[in-house]
Design goal:
4-stranded mixed β-sheet, about 0% helix
């Protein structure tokens, strides 16, 4: 009688959840996996639908004017996503695999923006009221393709990935502006705009990674090439008597092309039974161009070009004093590139007095980080860290240079950001039925920048936070959970000093049918205090703001496992993941 291989066969899962706060959201997902001695095939499909809600309020003083702005928005969304892959075991040492992923999302947003305008000298005397009932529709589609080869023989491992991804976004906006008198009984004037923003992004990457043993240590070498091409069109229209006429002085096309060639080498080795050392170097060459083509020829601008080579060393040292005491020191230098959508200088309006915009001259940020760590009993950890970031990518809130009434949120680079931080992680088994996890952190941030003409950022802020999660075994396959966090004051972006916030969450879980089915009930942000508030001061503008979203909600989740839980698919990353994260929301 032959013994059956428990790692072969099939498994899968079905899951669904529904949550309700002000509005409802839900999803359903299914996944499956089949494996035999020559092949492993796996896939999943998901569907989601619901409504989001958001509120933002700003009371702003600038250029002798008070702007009391409220924006409330809802967004209906519906999406489907899927993933299919296979691994072919062509030999005991070699595997060839492919992955295909796709998703499609439809979004309809509705917002009501109201701004009370008054003189700063008499802020309660309303001059006029601006209302902007905005609507927008969006259709987002993406598809990614991966081909992979993996080889493993003893301590030699080779992994090669080739990836391609397409990302498409069609969006249409109707943005009317109605100015009323102080009593809101008559329209003084109106300006109605619409704009269309199709976006095309194509990404191609190729990477190879090799690991082996050299002189008793582990050597890793690799290379990667990526090409990103984006095509962003901004068509702006003035609408009069229901007829839309394109405004060529506000319309443009922005193309961004980026090539990055990188190579790295890493080496780690146990120097003794207590000491371990590691070191590495990554080199990247970047060649990128951002070109804005204006439809009005007198508004043409020279392209933004970037061509540079950067070096990113890393090093680490670990000392195992005793089995329960470990000390470490690590240094690393890394680069963070901006999302593609924030490089696009288009102007997205809540009203003609409130908008956001991108920055084609945005530079990548360079982070130098050093960290000291201590781990006790393989569970409890404490870390101290310092990072110095040049060209920190951040958001700035400031007044418009042309319209004294208007304000914006933009992307820019700080000269430097210095960050000092500490973190303590404590998993605790209080009793046999009560487990807890606690995390405490504190930081101090120093932001510095000078953009000329009095536009200076000189902000220092300390912050602290704590998170706790308590899990209780209640018997008969019942579990309960209480979790929450508290965040002290700090700084967001370059200049926005935010106030404390906190959240309390509850959960109850039970398993059925020999633990195949899991049912979970949860209540999030019960006290409804996870929103934000604070003050921004920059370039003569002072704004007090607060906001919230649909965070207080109850959710039920159900999942059911099918088949053989021993069947596992190969876990791996693709070569396009870092670039895909920069596509943005």
């Amino acid at each position: 009688r032959l013994k059956k291989d428990k790692n072969l066969g099939y498994n899968g899962s079905l899951s669904t959840s529904y949550g309700h706060g002000r509005y409802g959201t839900g999803n359903a997902n299914a996944s499956g996996n089949y494996r035999n001695k020559k092949l492993n095939t796996f896939g999943n499909v998901g569907y989601n639908k619901g409504t989001r809600w958001n509120e933002m309020i700003f009371d702003t003083y600038q250029n002798g004017i008070r702007l009391d702005e409220t924006n409330r928005s809802t967004g209906d969304f519906e999406g489907i996503n899927g993933r299919l892959g296979s691994d072919f075991f062509i030999s005991p040492k070699s595997t060839i695999g492919f992955l295909i992923g796709a998703q499609s999302n439809l979004i309809e947003n509705y917002s009501n923006n109201r701004t009370f305008i008054s003189p700063e000298s008499n802020p309660n005397k309303i001059d006029s009221i601006l209302t902007a009932p905005n609507t927008s529709t969006g259709d987002r589609k993406q598809a990614t393709f991966n081909l992979n080869y993996a080889y493993e023989s003893g301590k030699n491992r080779l992994n090669i990935d080739a990836d391609y991804g397409t990302f498409r976004n069609e969006a249409d906006y109707l943005q009317p502006n109605y100015y009323y008198n102080a009593g809101e009984t008559a329209i003084i004037s109106q300006i109605i705009n619409s704009y269309n923003t199709p976006v095309k992004i194509d990404i191609a990457t190729a990477k190879a990674d090799f690991e082996t043993e050299v002189f008793g240590g582990n050597l890793g070498i690799g290379t990667k090439f990526s090409n990103v091409a984006t095509d962003n069109t901004f068509l702006f229209f003035n609408v009069k008597n229901g007829v839309a006429t394109r405004d060529n002085r506000r319309s443009n096309q922005f193309n961004y092309n980026e090539n990055v060639l990188a190579g790295y080498v890493n080496y780690s080795k146990n120097l003794s039974s207590k000491w371990n050392a590691s070191a590495g170097l990554r080199v990247e060459n970047t060649d990128a161009t951002g070109e804005l083509t204006a439809f009005a020829t007198d508004l043409e601008e020279p392209p933004a070009t970037f061509d540079y080579t950067s070096y990113f060393p890393s090093a680490g040292l670990t000392y195992q004093h005793k089995p329960e005491h470990a000390f470490s020191v690590n240094y690393g230098r890394r680069i963070n590139r901006p999302d593609y959508n924030v490089l696009n200088p288009l102007r997205e309006q809540l009203s003609e007095l409130s908008y956001s915009k991108g920055n084609k001259f945005l530079q990548p940020e360079i982070v130098n980080n050093i960290e000291l760590g201590y781990t006790f009993n393989y569970r409890y950890s404490f870390k101290l860290a310092y990072s110095n970031t040049s060209n920190q990518i951040t958001r700035l809130i400031g007044p418009d240079e042309l319209d004294p009434r208007a304000g914006f949120i933009s992307w820019d680079n700080l000269a430097t950001q210095k960050l000092y931080s500490a973190n303590l992680s404590l998993p605790v088994d209080i009793t046999g039925w009560w487990n807890a996890y606690m995390n405490f952190s504190a930081s101090y941030t120093d932001n510095q920048a000078d953009y000329g003409n009095g536009k200076v950022v000189d902000v220092q802020a300390g912050s602290y936070s704590c998170y706790q999660q308590h899990t209780f075994k209640l018997g008969k396959q019942w579990k309960g959970e209480i979790s929450g966090w508290y965040s002290g004051p700090g700084v967001w972006g370059g200049v926005f000093l935010y106030d404390p916030s906190y959240s309390l969450n509850l959960g109850l879980q039970r398993k059925f049918f020999k633990e195949k089915m899991n049912v979970r009930l949860s209540a999030g942000d019960i006290t409804y205090q996870s929103g934000w508030s604070g003050v921004s001061r920059f370039n003569g503008q002072v704004g007090n703001g607060r906001g919230n979203w649909d965070s207080r909600r109850a959710t039920i989740s159900i999942s059911y496992d099918l088949g053989n839980n021993n069947v596992k698919s190969r876990k791996r990353n693709t070569g396009i993941e870092d670039e895909s994260k920069r596509v943005g929301g």
